[in-house]
Amino acid sequence: MTRDKRKIKFTKPVVSNKEGMQLSTPESVAKYIAKRLKTDIIADLGCGIGGQVIFFAKKCNKVYAIDKNPVKLRFAKKNCELYNVNNVEFILGDVLSKSTREKISDADIIFSDPARPLSERERTLESLEPSIIEILKLYSTITEKFAFHIPPQMPPSRINLDCEREYLSFNNQLNRMTLYFNALKRCERSAVILPDELQLCSSNASQIKTSPLQEYVYEPEPSIAKGQLLNELCQIFANKSDEIFFYKGDTKRTLLTSFKLLDSLFFKDRYRVLGKVEGDILRIKNILKSEKAKNVILRFDIEPEKYWEVRKMLEDGLNGSNTFHVFGFGKKFIVCEKIKK
Length: 341
Fold this sequence. Notes:
This protein is α/β, with parallel strands linked by helices.
């Protein structure tokens, strides 16, 4: 049975079509963004069904909600009524028109979560609508404070803008990236962990050291890894007797390692290392049997159609009761037991 996205994203039964719900900002994320952008008057360009507008209205004195789609704007009005906010002015129009700019000329902050093609394989700034570049040009006569949501998978090399890139993890999943300009910019790169609202900013932290595999490994929150903030994360432990090192990483996963068991809310998960092998993955079966394994979760690049074939091959003959994770980087594999939080 498919879960209702309205219940996942919102605490109230918002009204929307399928596309609007798919592109909407989860309530917990919207609350954080509204808290960071708290001001007198804010404008949301391309507001969609109003998921972010609602929480801007709870933090700001006035909100302009603009969209060129009358259906989405009608949804936004109903959802604001549902959440009992009444300090929103709704404007039907093209956000890149001078007439719209004149209607919101007293805005302190311009915010936009541009729509992106849902089927797009490679994320680019050029495919976002409305255009971030055009918004910056048109509204720079009103304010210098801008913030934009963009797809978090977009490579940094495609973001040739002077702004803070804030990566946000929500419930241990990379959720979005927000660009903050001018006075809203705090640093070059940052990470936020929700729902705990932990934050980490880029700094002049020393380069993390690389180490062979030790007794424990850690997966940092995806926003930490994506934001290239491993140095800053490891700096947290620099003044302690505990030390943490970089072990292995690729485009999908990163592992840190240490001799002693460490703890941090910036860790997505922690693991105890049970063993490692090189070459033939079937060699790990001896480790799995000795540790009384029953289930094996594969944590390496593998074609989807082969995942269950390899997993069943590893689980065949196991009669224990434990579940273990197998991380792989090339031909090197390690067997780990997740440490419960």
